[in-house]
Every structure is written in C-alpha cells, then in structure tokens.
Task: structure prediction
Amino acid sequence: MSKQVKNAAGRFVPIEINGEKQVPYKGVGKYKPEGKKFAPKIPTNANFPTNGNKQVPTIKEALIKAGLKDGMTISSHHHFRNGDLIMNQVFDIAKEMGVKNLRWFPSASFPCHEHLIKYLEDGTIQRIEGSMNGPLGKFTSQGKMKGTAILRSHGGRYQAVQDGEVKIDIAIIAAGTADQFGNANGVTGASASGLLGFALADSQYADKVIVITDNMVPFPCVPWQIQGNFVDYTVKVDKAGNPDKIISGTTKITKSPDRLLLAEMTANFCEATGIIKNGFSFQTGAGGTSLAVSKYFGDIMREKNIKARFARGGSNEFLVKMLEEGLIEYILDGQTFDLEGVRSMRENPNHTWTSPFTSYNYHSKGNFAAMVDVVILGATEVDINFNGNVVTHSDGLLMHGIGGWQNCLFSKTVILPIPLFRNRIPVIVDEVTTIVGPGELIDVIVTERGIAINPLRKDLIEASKNSGLPIKTIQQLKEEAEKICGIAQKPDFTDEIIAAIKWVDGTVIDVVRKLKKKK
Amino acid sequence: MSKQVKNAAGRFVPIEINGEKQVPYKGVGKYKPEGKKFAPKIPTNANFPTNGNKQVPTIKEALIKAGLKDGMTISSHHHFRNGDLIMNQVFDIAKEMGVKNLRWFPSASFPCHEHLIKYLEDGTIQRIEGSMNGPLGKFTSQGKMKGTAILRSHGGRYQAVQDGEVKIDIAIIAAGTADQFGNANGVTGASASGLLGFALADSQYADKVIVITDNMVPFPCVPWQIQGNFVDYTVKVDKAGNPDKIISGTTKITKSPDRLLLAEMTANFCEATGIIKNGFSFQTGAGGTSLAVSKYFGDIMREKNIKARFARGGSNEFLVKMLEEGLIEYILDGQTFDLEGVRSMRENPNHTWTSPFTSYNYHSKGNFAAMVDVVILGATEVDINFNGNVVTHSDGLLMHGIGGWQNCLFSKTVILPIPLFRNRIPVIVDEVTTIVGPGELIDVIVTERGIAINPLRKDLIEASKNSGLPIKTIQQLKEEAEKICGIAQKPDFTDEIIAAIKWVDGTVIDVVRKLKKKK
Result:
C-alpha cells in the first residue's frame, strides 16, 4: 500500500493510487496547477470519409475499429441516468472479445449497471472511476473491486480529462439524435435525455469517440451538443436509452411532510435574509427536499413580485413552470431531471444548456457555479465544523456519487436542508465519515429543529437575528439529535482503501475504506 | 533568404519563413500531421475573481494586465469587417506604451485598418499574418512590411492555432453583447455583427483573452458564442464596432448584367446536371456573382418545388428569405454578410451558427465543408489546369484574403463563375500568378462565353451533354479570351518573398513576391 500523508482536511490519504501519483488536498484555492492541458493527437480530415459518413453497422464493429484492447479507459455519460442501455452492451462485447483490465470512466453509474459486477469480478473491468450509485458502490465498499475507485465531481471529471489526469481511449456517447458525421444532441428523438454536457470533455479529449443513437437524421443534426468534428464512428441502434428513467433516485420531489418542512424553512430563511431579491440566482440541485425548495421559492417570488435573473438546473417541472411564468429569466441547465425539463430545453432558447466546463471546471478562468447567489444541496452527514459528506452513509457504505455537489459549494451561499436524523441515526456528527466538502464553504444547515449558520457568515447571522426563525448553533443541533437517538456509532473500517475522493482541483480530499465484515 | 524547394504544386517555396520552419505543400490529403494539439497552460479559478467580474475600466488597462510586451502576437476577428473600431485603438495603445515588434494575427483586415501602416513602418507591428484586403495588401506587395505576411484560410487559421503553429499571446474579441465574466455574442446589442466564430480558436488557445463590448449585460449573456471560462478581462467601451459596415467589399449582390448572366448560367448548370434536387446543399460564398446565384437557385427551387436540406452561409437576405419560405431547412452560418443575416440568426434556431472549427478545420475528424453538394466561389484567376487564385490580381498585387475559399474546395462540386476577362485582362491563364487552390479540387468554370468542366469530373461532362449549355474546354475559353484581349502580361516580380500562402493543412502552397517598381 502507498505511503499516506495527512492532508489539509486532516485526513490520511495515499500519495499514490492505482500506480498514479496523487496530490493531497491543500485547502480551498491553495493548490495551483503548473502544467499544461492535455494535448490530443492532431487528426486530419484525410483519414476520414470525404462524404462525412462515419456510420458503422454495430457497436462491436465501432469498438473493434477504435482498437479496443486490454487496459484501455472507456468513458460514458449518465444523461440517461438509470435508463442507460448501452454500457452493459459495451462491456458484454469486451467480455466476448476477451478484453481485460479495462478502466470504466462514467460520469456516473446507476443500479441498471449491476450487470457489470460480474465483469468487475472476472477482470474484464479493473476499476470504475466515477460515481457509483447503489449496487456498484456496495460492491466497492466490500473491497471487491480490483482497483481503487476514484470519485470526482462533475467539474472535477472535466478537470481530470482536460488536465490529462485521465486519458480516455474510447468515449461512448449515447444520444437522442445524431447524424452520420457524429453531430449529436439529447433534446430531440424518442430517446431524448436533455443534453450531453457530461460527455463534452470525453468528445474533446478522447482518442476515439463513438456516437450511438436510435435517431439518425440526415446531416446536419441541429442542435449539435456534441460536435461531429470530434467523432470517429457513429452507430444506429434500436434504442439508445430509456428517457423515462431519467427520473430516478434523487430526482423526485419529496412528499414527506418533514422534508417539505425543511424546504419551507429553507425558503423562509432565504426570504428573511434578503437572498431572495430581484435579479438573484439560485440552484436547488437534485434530492427530494432540494427540489421542493424551488416550489417554495416560486411561492415567495410570486407573492413579492420578485424575478430571478437565472436558476441553475438540474431542471425539473417546477423550474420550467417558473421560467414560463416569467419568474426566472434563464435556466442554465446541466442535466434535465424530468421530461418537462427536456421539452423546455428543446423549445425555449432561455432554457440554455451548459456543460461541466462552463459551470463547474475549477481549472478554467472562473466558472458559473461561483456566480450563483444561493444553492440548496443535500448531504448524508454534516459535522460540527460544517464539513459535508455526500458519498457514504453513517454506516460507511459508499452509496452515492458527488455529482455537482462540490462544485456548487463555490456559490455565494450554500444551504443544506437535512433532517436531524435518519432511521434514528443522527446526521450531524462530530466528524463526517468522509469529507467531501470543507466546512468553510458550507454556510447554513437547516433541520426540522433549527437552523445553524456557519460562524464565518457573520452577515447571515446578523440578517437572520430578528427573523423569528429557530437559529441555533450546530453543537446545539447535534446535542438535540443525540438526546433522541444517542451518539452515532462509527462504521467499522479496515485499513484498506477502496475509493479516493477528489476535490475540484484534482487533489485527494479523503478516502473511503473497506468495511469490516459483520460478525 | 531561406533555401527554397519546389512543392507538389510546382512552386518554389522557402523552408523557413520569419525564422520558423515550414512544410512545403505535398498535395491534397498527402501531408499527415504527427504531433499533438497545442496545450494551453492550465488556469485555475483560484486566480480569478470569485464573483466572476473580470471587468477592467479601459482597453489599455486590460492590455497592461495581459502583459503586453515586445514581440507578442495579438489576434483579432473580422466579424465587423470594415466596421472594426477596436484594433486601431489597440495598436495606438501599443505605440503609446512603446511596445515594438508585434505580430498582428487578424482573421482578416480591411481598408479601415490603413491607420496601421504607420505602425508597420515604425516597427510597432513587425508583420501581419492574416488576410489583407486593400491598402495593407498593397503596402505588403510593395515589400514594405518588415516580416513576411502569412495568409491562411479560415480553416487554416483555426488549424494553425490548434496545432500550435501560431501561439497567440493576447486575443482581442469585440462583441455585440457580453457579461462581465466574458460570455459574449454577436447576435444581440447595437453592435451585433452576427457571430464570433472567427475568434473561437483565439478564445480557446490564447494565453490571455480580452472581450470588449458596448453592451455589458448582467450574467448570463445568452447565447454565449464565446465562453467566459476562457476569458481573462472584459472591457466596456462606447462602441464595439460598426455593424453597418459588415456589408462591405465582397458582400453586395451584383447589378452587372454580365455577372447576373454568369449567375444564371451557374444555376442552370446545377439544374441541368441534377445537382439541384430535394435534400441537396449549397454554399454561395461572398462576391457579387456568387450571391446572385442563391437568388437563381431560389427561383429554380420554387418552380420545381425542391427543398434544400441546408445552405451554408455567409448568410444574406436571399438565403434568409429562402429559409423563412421553407426552401431551405437550415442555414449553417459562419459569417453574416448583412443585417438580415444577423436578425435571422438571432431569431431563428434553424439559422445555426458554425465556426471555422466545425466547418473548415482540416485537422479534425472531418468537417462540414466536405458535406456540401455544391459551392459557388469567385476567383481572380484560373489556369488551364483549373488551379485557382484569389489573393493576387494578374498585376501581381496582393489585394485579397483567402477567406473560406480553400476550405470550400472540399465540397462535392466546386463551381467558379468568372468573367472571361476583367479590364481587358484575361482571367483564364496558362498559369495562375499565385496558386491558392489546386485544380484537382475545382470542377467547373462558368464564363459568359462558355462553361468548362474539369476532365476529372466525367460524371458532370456526361450529365451536361444534352443540356444545351455552352460546354467548352478550358483551353477553348482561354483562346477566346486571348483573341479579344491578347495574352495576359505576367507581373514583374523581384525575388523577394513578401507573403506565403498556406494550404488548409498548414503547408506552404505558394508565395507572393515583391513587385518591381514601375519605371
């Protein structure tokens, strides 16, 4: 096992993972990259069909032409979320071809990819670098993956590809519509998933790029969210993905009265502290509670005749309604969370697509996330120093991806509406199981029994003083939870590292260790 | 002077220009690049304002912050064409600061830049690499520029930047609308020039990027044709450009009955040979005759109820009308040639913006130009081997840029409607003064006295056999012209090379030499 050092978050992290050198987390804005962006090989039109037709008959043929072989890195995007139909096929083909030791580099994986566990077991896939929601996360937590998983935020994934930390050999891009040249989008066709931004870095930097669609239109496919000039092969299949399943996991608005209360308190806090004002901007992320916040924001804005300059998606029916009502001037969207989002993006030029490059890449000349006035996010745990965790549960299981969560922490005000406890396990703890976001970037914790404001945000403490809202310290909230549930038991880890958590700048902020087997 | 070698076009070209090694032209599709794309330094958000506001008070302050100093390369785009108001100011500032020896790398320069001749004389500017229309071209032809000019096509300019042949230190991007973060577009605002595609490579690869606008809107500037994530500084000025002057030089439809005849013959040829058919595509370029062709195409299409899948811009009122009428499904536009083009691009999602990357870059995985069925272009000269010239006149003066001309030669059929003579000087000659495009890519020459088809295009010769059109050989056309005007006199050049003409792949296809002084 590699040597470990204590990073600026106080966590011990290895200086080498999967045989590659790592930089330990140095603090927010402290690590300054000195290198150059990854430089792909210069292609030439002379090596591509003069009529622009890059279509090959099958995914298998595309993979063979792309030179699929042992040890390669295969990337994919997750705009279909749990409705992805392609990646299981891709690895079935790899298995059939006897290819081994692949690195899968998805922007996220979902329960639909449980099929791949057998390939992780038999060595077809050596490791996954990307969010693992559900069964693959559990498999990894049990120490069963051959390599070490690496989890990155959406922006961190773009950064890693741009900076050459992850070199993609073959990028797979499933698209609602494409032309034979490779121009592709996610807004039209029967398998429209909204947009294709998560595949942007892949298209720009991968050695070979394969676009797969069930709706092959004559050139030009307009709009092109992926540019065919980056694409090597195109394939037509019967079904590129199942868009009905983009509503999955974390994208349904909550019906729980407790969670609705959290959402309402959050909105009230934003109203009381003057965050909701003409020309403001907000992002409410995924997660049932966060989604409900946009509904309450709408109520306040209607009542007070307030208009937002923009809202950041993940878009959903509530945001779309607000856009169409004129409460929001623009939706800047990175991911549609329901089919109303897809429709609106297709029809409304003010429902604008963004990408992890524009929104979240920390290694660029600024990004959009920093310009959002208030962002509402979820968390599995928060600690008394306001550090946040979104990847592991208090039981230590790696069950969620980072998504855009880390990137959104750069917003002007970050609010986490979270229940004080889940299944009688306190959510506010002394120390989070996994540090995914540093406390200095997390401003407000809203629970059903009170709101804690980060002491760094004196302005918010002042602004909320006479609001009548139940402002408490985070210690008070923790103690209240512990009075009811007792102190949370720490998960029982071995020393073995099963996953590394990257910060937005590519440094290692924490690791996840293998769980001890229950006796 | 550098050693010279004979290239595959039969021209003697130097192996070094301005101290930089050159690859002589090797033939169409023969040169295969082996290197990697240019890798810019990795930036970090940590070095940029957290609120996204990159605005500085003046152009001068932006240039100082960007580190303007001797020997740098300053780039600019020409979407305002003869209405550019910024670059003269930029070099006034450079002069005032005592900076010397700059390379100006515009996508094109126009008569409005005559102001810069004094800086070429006093050494503020060492050389121009970019199209020089008018006075700057004449100045160069007289051998007065200190360095050697390099002319590239629009695609070749993207290629040169992408491949690191030209490293831009400071990119200047004048925009109709921008936000303080640097997102910018050319479709809105009082100084809307259409789009900003010519500045795309500059934004992506330059070390420092400055966006200048007279319409600074709150974030987000939608649409963003230039992404603020690439931008270092933004500046608000009183006037960013004069959009009335985008109609200049080559963008007015001809009123000459001779030219209208050429346009009509061209359209008739396309009709007779079956090029105009349902789902076809065309590009009519700039130049009065070419523009008139789109009008005649429209007449034929209306009459025969034919619809085009797409037309490539430069857009103009005729194309826009055809789009709105439903004769064309999409305009894929790289440059608006009049204000109707700007309006349509702003309002109509099927009037789609392209860039030199998508349309013309030869060092990518294909490009759009190759997928166009027929392209109508101009030329100053054509020779009996169908080689074309667009940069020099028969008098040897360097007076025009290449524009997208070379890139468009990759279209399926290339037609040049040209008068048999201009000012009693034959246009069809034994050997063009400057080879800008190789004859193997030029298919048809339409003159008022007959149409010559490249012998390589047996299909077109066959298809036009019984058309009743005056099909002749190119030799016949040349002889007819010479009977009337006599043989064209060759320009009287010295040995001194004043400009190099790059092919689409960065190789040197020809050079322009200094003219002897007239006695």
